[in-house]
Amino acid sequence: MVNADDFGFTPDVNCGILAAHRDGILTAATLMANGAAFDDAVRLARETPSLDVGCHLVLISGRSLVPPYAPLPASAPELLRALAARRIRIYDELAAQVRKIVAAGIRPTHLDTHKHTHLAPPVLEAVARLGEEFRIPWIRRPMDFPLSAPGGVSPRLKRLTSAAIALLGGRFHRVLKRHRCRATDFFAGFRITGRFRTQELVELMRVIPEGTTELMCHPGRCGEALRHAPTRLKESREAELAALTAPQVREAVERAGIELVNYRLLA
Fold first, then answer.
1. What's the 3-state SS for 161-181?
2. What is the DSSP letter of 88?
3. In what side-by-side order are the strands of the sheet with 138-139?
4. pTM recorded for the entire structure
5. Angle subtended at Cα 130 by Cα 126 and Cα 134, rounded to the nearest 5 degrees
6. Residue ranges of the alpha helices (H) in 104-155?
7. Residues with Cβ < 8 Å from 250, sequence gap 6 or more?
8. Is there a smaller number of Cβ atoms within 10 Å at the N or the C end of the chain?
9. By the 8 A CB rule, do 109 and 53 touch?
């Protein structure tokens, strides 16, 4: 599964995601219920039934979907402080986001979180509970498989963070099992977020292990809306889009015997 985050963030991000799907190897995307371009993303999803759509659950940035509709924490440290002080109704907020997506006529097949916030135990509990209640069976496992990022582009901090995340794997899978949810065998993309080009993606395809793997990506068009949006991923989205649609990458997928699928096909 090649899955794009941030569907619904801005219209130019939506445009890039659709291009990566129609002209490249992208098979799925996760939709932000509180994104500024949510309605545009829903329209595009309806027009493109081959694109598998899930929920990109947000607890960092944007506004809450539950009263008093206040701004959500702006960063991970702020979120952790809010969680410690119990200032966020985690389940209510995330449930409102899933309900908005379902009410728009989307049948989500998978769940993930913006900035991987479901690594925090109370957030993971809420996400797994929602997966069980809404019969959305797949939840992202945000632990990269052992990999020095292609081309050696992964910063040391990214590698250390990825190693620390891997230590949480045991609890993660116990929670999913308790709520009858599933995860892919492998996950890739965290270490190279915002840093991969065509050659790095070609190299990555050579080392994809046997089993099911989700490759997280962030393609987009870097137009005016994205340039003014609160994100560090701007020009890099154009580079990811170019890589995802490059003929060399498609050839690498075929040489490696990789089958491009989506969560709907595995349900």
1. HHHHHHCCHHHHHHHHHHCCC
2. S
3. 138-139, 110-113, 52-57, 28-31, 2-7, 213-217, 186-188
4. 0.90
5. 175
6. 121-133
7. 24, 25
8. C
9. yes
Each residue's pLDDT tens digit, 228-252: 998 888 999 999 999 999 999 999 9
List, in order, residues 6 or more apart from 259 with CB less than 8 Å away: none
* Nearest-5° Cα angle at 190, 46 to 38: 25
Residue 244 identity (one-letter amino acid)? L
pLDDT digits (tens, 9 = 90+) for 93-122: 999 999 999 999 999 999 999 999 999 999
Q: How far is residue 244's CA from residue 238's CA, in Å, rounded to a whole number?
A: 10
Q: What is the DSSP string of 23-85?
A: HSS--EEEE-TT-TTHHHHHHHHHH-TTSEEEEEE-SSSSB-SSTT-PBPPSSHHHHHHHHHT
Q: What is the distance between the alpha carbons of residues 155 and 96, in angstroms, rounded to a whole number?
A: 36
Using the 8-state DSSP alphabet, how is residue 2 labeled? E
Other Cβ atoms less than 10 A from the Cβ of 95: the count is: 19
d(CA 241, CA 70): 33
Burial class from Cβ neighbours inside 10 Å (0-12, 13-18, 19+) for residue 204 reads buried
Whether the CB-CB separation of 52 and 262 falls below 8 Å is answered with yes
